Amino acid sequence: MKKLDSVQIRQMFLDFFQSKGHKIEPSQSLIPKDDPSLLWINSGVATLKKYFDGSVVPENPRMVNAQKSIRTNDIENVGHTARHHTFFEMLGNFSVGDYFKKEVIPWAWELLTSPEWYAIEPEKLYVTYYPRDLETKKLWEAQTGFIAGHTVAQEDNFWDIGEGPSGPDTEIFFDRGPKFQNLPDRDPEMYPGGENERYLEIWNIVFSQFNHLPGLTDNRKYPELPHKNIDTGMGLERVVSIFENAPTNFETDLFLPIIKKVEMLSGKKYGENQQQDISFKVIADHIRTVTFAISDGALPGNSGRGYVIRRLLRRAVMHGQKLGIKEAFLSQLVPIVGQIMQSYYPEILKNQDKIIPVVQAEEARFSKTLTAGLTLLNEYIKNTKQQDRKQLSGQNAFKLFDTYGFPLELTEEQAADAGLTVDKKAFEDEMKAQQDRARTAQGKLKAFAVQNAALMNLKVKSEYVGWRHTTVAAAKIVAIIVNDSSADAVLAGQQALLVFDKTPFYAEMGGQVADHGSINDRNGHLLAHITDVQNAPNKQHIHTVQAVAELKIGQIVDLQVDMKRHIAVSKNHTATHLLDQTLRNIIGGDIHQAGSLVEPNYLRFDFTHQGPVKQAVLDQIEEQVNRQIEAALPITWVETDIASAKKLGAVAVFGEKYGKKVRVVSIGSFNKEFDGGTHANNTSELGLFKIVSESGIGAGTRRIEAVTGRDAFNLFKTHERWLQETASILGTQKLDDVTDKVMALQNELKQERKQIASLAAKEANDSSDSIFKDVRQAGGYRYVTAEINHQTIDGLRQIVDNWREKQVSDVIVLASENQGKALLVAASAKAKEVKAGDIVKAISSKIQGGGGGRPEFAQAGGKNPQGIKQALAAVSPYLESL
After folding, report:
1. How sure is the predictor about 439, in pLDDT bands with cuts at 50, 70 and 90?
2. Are 475 and 501 in contact (CB under 8 A)?
3. What's the CATH code of the domain at 497?
4. How many domains is the chain built from?
5. Quick one: how far is CA 221 from the chain centroid?
6. 0.85 surpassed by pTM
7. pLDDT confidence of 211, banded at 50, 70, 90?
8. All residues at 6 or more sequence positions from 98 whose CB lies less than 8 Å from its CB, including other chains
9. d(CA 671, CA 633)
């Protein structure tokens, strides 16, 4: 076996398959594009799904990649095992309907064992195969000179994720030798494929050849797919551990530089203490994930991807604390991650000035949360001991984990110092409930669609002419698909998919919706309505039609785009380009497009930005876009190669993939972008631009919705009508006076509220004496209850303050009906024995409400004032129960 480092192993894999005619696909962003089934790109094949499900036919059916990936379904295992990671790289080679078993198995053997490549000793390799897949067994044994006894039948070797593509697979294992054997020879798991440390899986090859149809449970009855595919995965981290003879993935060149830096920061040594080593591993793993995720545009937040980053970052900080690192330190590890990955991911070092401030800010934010979390944990421990219990609540431990990012082991450690254990079962129940909620929220999105043979096998030529023409005379019908099958004709009343030799209809793409229109005969009679247009796997425009009359293959027809819709969509598309450029001009920074939707009546533009855009800035954006409209800028386009387009200064859309030829759209000298959509001829055609709303749609992603032309004018008219109605209500003659009138009324309202508050306070003081005279007793505690009409929370608080000064009783509970709502306050002078928050929780159901607070004071609100008397009456039984 050669001595290779991670850089050489990755590059050699890519070079080998490139020598076999594969196209090297670059590692794509960790943020999935147009795939709501995934939170993160989680495998090498995830970015290629459009090829495997048949929605797009690749230029080259042979592909190879080294794809960065994130999986977070078992974060808690990271650091405790040898090979669990949240961020990892997957090396893979893929075939879409091209080669299959007889090619891929010899290639795998050649890469692994050939002196020219990895040069692994053949006797150290084992493979598993599906028992009924004897062809694979034969290929391994006959075509590779595989050592007898090194092929193992394994019932689990069948890749099946439910409905959709499936098939047998074969896994390749490396024998690490007796020194890694952690089980006796006779142990049932001591074999290649078993749960042991000696035989390490390094490569999985999936033969995707069957379609798991609904209702089928026996894979022997699955029908074959139209195209058989190959999908393989080799985890870089574990392969590197083999070449570097490392006990775990963490003692390799991918992690050790990070661990060495943490040693310097902590003063601790890796490898001296097993529990301590967990923290080193967690930090090394999590900083890689956080660094790559932020580099790709994800930001810490409270949901989705943002929550994952925040949780990982906080978990790393907590493990830093366990190693004795008290100051912020994670940002110092970002450049080290960049240096390790520089050869294949130079963007990390390039983006580190963007990544580091985000990590620093999140660490600073967590330092405040950390203090609050530790305070709460100490309170839980104190309360548990006061109640003479020996076990900390699992629910409380989960709250610390979920809200403050405290790992369970940290809570256990703190509890152990106080002589307590933690109810781990209750914690795990809470964790499972949360995971179940997450799975339910994700819905039933399919990871892979099933190939459509009729569309994939469609080879007819189709030319799009819509950039210059919106009608086409004498177009020829070259393909008809009815009910997923090719057909010679479509009957009146039927829906079908049609392809023409040339078409003016824009296919939905890049956020711009498709053209609609009609199919007519040569005399202008309607034959069908076109209701949608999409790109076929082989790039033809597929028209969804509702036939009015029979249509046949070879028939010559006229095509007419719905011009009203087309013009409206084109104007809004031009507006997205103006908005995109204006955002970069005014806000600047690292703003880039994160998605868009262009409809006839509005546009939607998503972009990366931290925090809301202020109204004053939105006004500036509106103003600049409208200036470009007033300037009547001409809109032109050229088709050229990518290098020439970049020389022109054209901006590429984030995450888009471009072919050899690109179209560059210019809006005067204001904006140049790579673009394939339709546009106005001149900005003056837009008439007017108006922002409707600005909102957040996820961590670090904002959305602007806007309208143009007649829709913008109608919006202004609606706002004017509202203003006129407000003026009428206020009794003002001029619209100019509305603001002054509203401000005057607000000032009056403030003064009246002050007077009301003053009167309420006086009333509270006046009524205090009579309330305090009625002191009762229950369960050994003296208490006061009273209902005071039309009192505010502040008024009730004032009475409580008077009560504290006069030390009237142990407990007081007050209630009031105010503006149709019920208000409750409770206070306790013996908070260690009687908690005000518990009183409120016990009685607030009577007013159909809820609340809480501190042991000394708590309050609640409810929607049932009729229940006030019952709530106050419940105080006595509650005190008796203590």
Report:
1. very low
2. yes
3. 2.40.30.130
4. 5
5. 36
6. no
7. confident
8. 61, 62
9. 10
